[in-house]
Amino acid sequence: MIRPRSLAIALVPALALGLSACGDGGDAAADYPTKRIDYVLPFDPGGESDITARLQQAPLEEELGQGVTISYQPGAGGALGWSELTRSRPDGYTVMGCNIPHIILQPMLRDDAGYETEEIKPVYFFQSTPNALLVPADSEMETVEDFVTAAKENPGAMSVGGSGDFSANHIGTLQFADVAGIEVSYTPFDGTGSAVPALLGGHVDALMSYTPQIEQLGDQVKALAIATEEPMEGLDVPTFKDAGYDVVDGAYRGVCVQEDTPEEIVNKLADVFAAVNEDEELVQDFRDQAFNLENYGPEESVELIESRTDQYEELLSKLGMLDR
Amino acid sequence: MNDALAGLVGLISPMTLLLVLVGTVSGMAIGAMPGLSATMGLALLVPFTFAMDPGPGLVLLGAFYMGAIYGGSFTAILVNAPGTPSSIATAFEGYRLTKQGRSEEAIVAATVGSVVGGLVGVLFLLFLAPPLATFSLRFGPQEYFWVAIFGLTIIVGMSTGSILKGLIGGALGILLGTVGIAPVGGDVRFTFGEPTLQGGVPLVPALIGLFTVPEVIKLVGRRSREYDVQKDSTPEGRTWWHMVVDLFRRPVNLVRSSVIGSLIGILPGAGGSVANLVAYNEAKRTSKERHLYGKGSAEGVVAAESANNATVGGGFIPTLTLGVPGTPPDAIVLGVLLLQGLRPGADLFTQSGDLVYTFAFALALSALMMAPVGLIGGRALQRGVVALPARYLAPAIAVMSIVGAYAIRSSVVDVVIMLVLGVLAYFLGRVGVGVAPIVLGLVLGPIAERGLVQGLLTSTELAMPWTSFFTRPLSIALILMTVAGFLWPLWQNRKKGEVDDMLTEAEKDRA
């Protein structure tokens, strides 16, 4: 007897809530942002992504007219954060740092990374750190050619360290070895932080690392080559291309949102990050850290991801590392 | 020398002194909360340093870090919940002291240990930074492997009853440590389709579960008024001052543990979680009161706490001289240095020497400040906790555990992991498998695995890469230490076997 009535009573507020939620949804995109934004990094604090986000924080808050909180969700080389992102609300208030090649290679090479590359929506890629081949300062090697000669003398004996499995360093080492026709032993370390002492202590012969390390480590290391199209401003290091090896790659940093986030919000966020990339102080800081400024909007980012995906797929299947 | 003077002048300003005090006290508060580690706390603090000049910003971070490592001892001692992974061994002994009504003694021991350890670490930083940083680089993957194996020999010393049960616990811990993405090779292991487990069994929620949950179950299950009877926490009537003097009468333990902590702090990537365990084990191995270990030994608390605070100064050695973070919290400080445009390296000492000295002196001052703050605040907290009846204490600890496990990365899965491991630990405890070996396996297993596989990969120039583990001089030294570490407690057990048996029996009677 009472049931239908109580059901109705229960339904009214539920409907009202539903309607108002829809209403909010419509306005939310137009007014966005109306509250604090969470800028989540899927890595430990203190790394390059963290430094970048800290540099962006103030100009971001200025452009958005809202506060920006930086937080961390580390684990599994970022995969933990990204699989969390696919389950977050598509309202644009959770913005997560995302990196190429990580978001491509993890789903490609792990049975279940917890997310698929297509499930996270790139907003803007604002920065890259090209790969750089480093040797200890007292090494006899002076050029990439020396390295290739040494590797050919004793195939497989040369050890090259880098940050993690299937990182830009790893894929960069594979690429270089493939193009140069050499065989080296790649050793993944737990991030750049623990790879560097292995090089300085002579436990690996060389390190495939990122350009900022050239500046940071100063005269403790020699940089043989960097993996860019053109030489980098302020860095007196030849490119792999100069030496005749077509190796151009590195890590790209950007931000992503949940895949169902409305276009309007994505575009607004992209505009904001584009504007932040023109902040004079930030541009100077990026240069000081040897970060490359990049400007990939939402669509260009998708193209970037697709072109890299093809490239990696080709390389990995050629090397027999794609088993599915 | 001029830089040192300039550094001292830089420190003696009311503003800087205030920053040291604020940093130390807030660090202690954060460190005391399980789930909020020193690393997380520092990350939260970083935005505040942006508004400051490099000097004061670093002073605040350094003092906070020092305080946080010390603060982790409070909950370890009072409720068996290590506030940070640096206080694991503190819980082994400190909580047992609490159960005997000697929590004040444990707090005083932790304070004395932390202050001395903190100061020794800073001395290393001030006087031995460049040569030690160079030496630390000689530790390669092979040496990390042996350091971890050496650490695992602690299990033998820790298993008073049955070595077999100790080894079972250790194997279980190592197995838990293999969950997630393999550190080398990238295979996904034992996640059972749960993406969150890809990151492995998270250390902090695991620690909370393993240590704290069994105690809560016991508190509730036994319906004892264990905590009520302990209001008089100094049964032998000693004042805190006597306790301090007693601890200084035996300086060997203090100094040895501080040196161990400083040295382990210098090894990039190791840090307080390993240092406190190794120092604890060395203290136990060489102690004249070995029979007290595992049953409540203030010496053990001193060893663990002086070692973990010594890693603060030690860890900054590679951070400042090589640009390589010595411990996880150092990574944050390194990030701030870079943001402020300061390049670590030998140049930092020559070009910004005054800044380095101000920083080092601030760390020392922070260590000194922990004494009054800890002896007043820490003992007040201790009195409050022991005065709390079990019916309030048990739910309070339970809530704190859940919040702590959740807080570390806002994950419900972490809470589930914490609870599952806690219940498991309770039942394992009932059959005589202690949590200590499990924790050792969980902390050290992944270090050993990484060292093993990396060592094999970097030695491909050898016909048989595994031989590299037995030919490097440092590796050989570590192997000898491992063998000694394994055999020494066995030999001592045989010697003191009868006494130990009697004590174990007595323990059983009481329980």
UniProtKB/TrEMBL annotation, chain A:
Recorded protein name is: C4-dicarboxylate ABC transporter substrate-binding protein
Q: Which PANTHER family match?
A: BLR1237 PROTEIN, TRICARBOXYLATE-BINDING PROTEIN
Give the signal peptide range: 1-21
What InterPro entries does the entry give?
BUG (IPR005064), Bug_dom1 (IPR042100)
Signal keyword on record: yes
Originating species: Ornithinimicrobium pekingense
Taxonomically, the superkingdom here is Bacteria
* Sorted UniProt keywords: Signal
- UniProt keyword annotation of Plastid present: no
Q: Which family does it belong to?
A: Belongs to the UPF0065 (bug) family.
UniProtKB/TrEMBL annotation, chain B:
Span-the-membrane segments of this chain are 6-25, 32-52, 58-79, 106-129, 144-160, 167-185, 197-217, 259-280, 355-378, 390-409, 415-448, 469-491
**Could you tell me which residue ranges the DUF112 domain spans?**
17-440
Q: Highest taxon of the source?
A: Bacteria
Under Pfam families, the record lists: TctA
Q: Does the keyword Phosphoprotein apply?
A: no
The cross-references to InterPro entries, in alphabetical order and at most eight, read: DUF112_TM (IPR002823)
**Transmembrane helix found in the keyword field:** yes
Keywords assigned by UniProt, alphabetized: Membrane, Transmembrane, Transmembrane helix
Which PANTHER family does the entry link to? TRICARBOXYLIC TRANSPORT PROTEIN
Q: What is this protein called?
A: C4-dicarboxylate ABC transporter permease
